[in-house]
User: Fold DNA replication and repair protein RecF from Paracholeplasma vituli.
Amino acid sequence: MIKEIRLKQFRNHSSLHLKIHKKRIFIFGNNGLGKTSILEAIYFASLTKSHRTSDDKALIQKNAPYAKVDITTDAHHYQVVISDTGTKAFIDKVQVLKMSDYINGYRVIMFAPEDLDLIKGQPSNRRQFLDIEMSQIHKPYMLNLSKYKQILKQRNALMKNLGVNDDLTFFKIITDQLSIVADEIILKRQTFIQKLNQAFKTRFKTFNEVDEVGVKYEPNVALNNLKQVLYDKKDKDILTQTTNYGPHRDELSFEFNQQEAKTYASQGQQRLMVIALKLALLDIYDSKEIETIILLDDVLSELDSDKQQKLLNHLPEQYQTFISGVEPIEIQDIEQIHLTKES
Ligand SMILES: Nc1ncnc2c1ncn2[C@@H]1O[C@H](COP(=O)(O)OP(=O)(O)OP(=O)(O)O)[C@@H](O)[C@H]1O
Assistant:
């Protein structure tokens, strides 16, 4: 459990010290006071990256030389220092030189309003979600994915130079290699989404007993078919100078009462779907030994008071959960932190 948070020159926080006593924490206050930034800092101290920018320097307070985040849990003290020269990370005051040894000391699951793009946004948003989440729980998937990207790049380069009547030796080698790795990816995605779908449905039901949701895998080409398709569609790939088929074109579809959620579900329903999806990930992670913190940024907006209560009452109890919002809430056993201009 996180017991203390200290921010120094992080975003708009010159110096902030919060002592935490409970498992549920609600941080509220007016717009722009830095609620998201606190959740972002907890996220950053876990993964050494932000959920909303790839530019770490944006986290340093304007005109300050560095930013610092200290997170104290029951077990350890985590510190990250961000400066012009990069990010340094420390566990219990000892610098950890290899970031892969530092990250995930505690795990974070975050919902941020940007995550609504999972439903509303482009297929690439959904593929990215799949790849990030699956890589976290299955290392061979991550390795296959980077192998796939590398072969795909080579194949695309080949397609730029290949003529319809050219020798096909290299084309065959690379197409066969790509298909083998692609099938591994498709198979793993299939299994993962099946599990995710079950957990997603169950989580969503705790917030809303009436409606039915689902997430479906729509592979661009079905398992074990890619090799044949790539041979059959060779001329199209040559003409367009790229690889038109494969898991890099896969899609996930979200359904709400058997309809496409993107166009059918309301804003509030979409929000609950994404939160349920994020919580479903917890149900399929197999890592009781790693402490997990849930971060819910601005989850309550667009929800009516009944849905707000249902959401707050059905959050999994075993995980410490930080929630941000604008107005205070009436719910028991939650630590409410009021951010004001002076805090
Ligand atoms: N590097 C920085 N230096 C100083 N201030 C910054 C920096 N980056 C962002 N800010 C400011 O920090 C403030 C905090 O933003 P944040 O998104 O955390 O607020 P919030 O309380 O979550 O707001 P909202 O309720 O509107 O979501 C904003 O006013 C923003 O302009």
Remarks:
- Residues 2-106+290-338 form a domain with the Rossmann fold fold (CATH 3.40.50.300).
- The CA atoms of residues 197 and 215 lie 5 Å apart.
- The two ends are 23 Å apart (CA to CA).
